[in-house]
């Protein structure tokens, strides 16, 4: 039985010990629960805030002095647009819907994007983008060459992807790239730098709903557009994932062979069906989103009890390989490495159930319509929860997941599986 995307708030938990880990409790030889300390504040943060406080009005004033140009018909004229997305993989994934809708709104539009080395895999795979530029924050000296490249492109417009706050990651590019028009969400303190200020979408909560406000510029009603994210999975990548589910391993550069007799359809089927495939991601990219290993172990054991015989794979970031192998061994599951981002996407798209903390893997689940249970720290669910896909979004009452209890996760698993 499929479950629609639901949000559940978890009350403030206490620390869970081995004595009360339900359904497959850990043995005395298993690791004791650990609690991560709250994240430390960055040193010299006050200097950073002061520096930004000075430069935001300077850049806005600079933009005011730039020449003005006639406004094109965004729905009919041939226009070349640069979309700024100089951030992370998940941010790129949630933007794929707006890419698709902008390109569909005008057959004469050319959409380019400015990304980073981290999100290149997503952006370069999008069929809606013509050119992908790269801003590498680790190489500040490359800034001037990049600006010359962008100015030479003579963009008709640049879109600031930041929809809830102003950002020094995008404002300098916004005013320096030479685009004739600067499009951004109004009310963030930089309206003076915008030639096309876009009113925020009323009632928007999810980041994708905030991004959908840009649709108005291109004649798209935000309430009517299809803003769901999407990720393309090549036939070869899908067949390689099928090989892994059948017991093979990902091999970089390996072509699909005769072992792949079938290809799963888009989005998984019944998460508790005869062909159930369970995928568990441990990595989160941030200490505040790390869920304790022993609770992953208990949840995997619970999944194996509910779905006897179903393959259960554990994945994680390359630098957490030892952790992935340890959890998989304790839980009786299989550790799987994903050498490429495309390998992870293919595994998620061919799974019938996913468990993950808040990270880009959750956005992949939304893009591939894979049923998922996702764990969010306090204050993150509303903006980043699953979007347009079956699943359950859980939210803790603390800003770290270290104390996130086991029982509500097991309940969500059972609900999504239909038990």
Q: What radius of gyration results from the CA coordinates?
A: 23 Å
| Helix and strand element order | EHEHHEHEHEHEEHHEHEHEHEHEHEH
Residue share in β-strands: 5-15%
Q: Which fold name corresponds to the CATH topology of the largest domain?
A: Rossmann fold
What's this entry about, in short?
The chain has 419 residues and is an alpha/beta fold. The protein has helices spanning 45-64, 89-94, 96-105, 120-125, 143-152, 171-176, 207-211, 235-245, 293-306, 321-331, 341-350, 360-368, 381-384, 407-417, and strands at residues 6-9, 79-84, 109-115, 132-134, 157-160, 181-185, 196-198, 278-281, 312-315, 334-335, 353-357, 372-376, 391-395. The N and C termini lie close together (9 Å).
Give an overview in words.
By secondary structure, the chain is an alpha/beta fold. The protein folds into two domains: 6-36 and 231-417, Rossmann fold (3-Layer(aba) Sandwich), CATH 3.40.50.2000; 45-218, Rossmann fold (3-Layer(aba) Sandwich). It has helices at residues 45-64, 89-94, 96-105, 120-125, 143-152, 171-176, 207-211, 235-245, 293-306, 321-331, 341-350, 360-368, 381-384, 407-417; strands spanning 6-9, 79-84, 109-115, 132-134, 157-160, 181-185, 196-198, 278-281, 312-315, 334-335, 353-357, 372-376, 391-395. Strands 1-13-12-11-8-9-10 form a seven-stranded parallel beta sheet, with helices on both faces. Helix 9 crosses helix 10 (321-331) and helix 11 (341-350) crosses helix 12 (360-368). The chain starts with 5 loop residues before the first strand and ends with a helix.
């Amino acid at each position: 039985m499929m479950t629609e995307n639901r949000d559940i708030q978890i009350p403030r938990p206490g620390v869970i010990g081995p004595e009360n880990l339900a359904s497959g409790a850990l043995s005395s030889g298993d690791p004791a629960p650990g609690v991560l300390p709250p994240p430390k504040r960055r040193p010299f943060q006050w200097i950073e805030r002061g520096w930004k406080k000075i430069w935001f009005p300077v850049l806005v004033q600079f933009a005011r002095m730039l020449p003005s140009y006639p406004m094109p018909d965004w729905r009919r004229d041939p226009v070349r647009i640069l979309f700024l997305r100089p951030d992370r993989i998940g941010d790129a994934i949630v933007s794929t819907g707006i890419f698709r809708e902008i390109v569909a709104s005008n057959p004469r539009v050319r959409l380019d994007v400015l990304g980073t080395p981290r999100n290149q895999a997503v952006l370069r795979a999008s069929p809606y983008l013509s050119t992908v530029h790269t801003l590498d924050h680790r190489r500040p000296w490359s800034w001037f060459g990049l600006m010359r490249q962008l100015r030479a492109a003579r963009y008709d417009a640049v879109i600031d992807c930041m929809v809830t706050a102003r950002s020094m990651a995008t404002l300098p590019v916004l005013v320096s790239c030479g685009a004739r028009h600067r499009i951004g969400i109004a009310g963030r303190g930089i309206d003076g730098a915008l030639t096309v200020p876009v009113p925020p979408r009323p009632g928007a909560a999810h980041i994708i709903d905030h991004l959908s406000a840009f649709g108005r510029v291109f004649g798209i009603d935000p309430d009517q557009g299809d803003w769901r994210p999407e990720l393309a999975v090549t036939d070869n990548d899908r067949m390689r994932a099928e090989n892994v589910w059948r017991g093979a391993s990902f091999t970089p550069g390996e072509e699909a062979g005769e072992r792949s007799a079938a290809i799963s359809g888009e989005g998984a089927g019944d998460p508790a069906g005869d062909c159930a495939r369970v995928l568990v991601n441990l990595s989160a990219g941030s200490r505040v989103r790390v869920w304790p290993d022993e609770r992953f172990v208990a949840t995997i054991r619970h999944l194996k009890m509910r779905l006897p015989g179903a393959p259960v794979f554990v994945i994680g970031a390359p630098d957490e390989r030892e952790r992935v192998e340890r959890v998989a061994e304790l839980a009786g599951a299989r550790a799987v490495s994903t050498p490429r981002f495309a390998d992870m996407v293919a595994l998620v798209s061919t799974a019938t159930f996913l468990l993950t903390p808040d990270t880009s893997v959750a956005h992949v689940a939304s893009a591939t319509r894979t049923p998922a249970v996702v764990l969010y720290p306090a204050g993150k669910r509303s903006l980043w929860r699953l979007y347009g896909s079956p699943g359950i979004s859980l939210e803790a009452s603390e800003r770290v997941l270290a104390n996130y209890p086991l029982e509500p996760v097991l309940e969500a698993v059972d609900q999504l599986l239909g038990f």
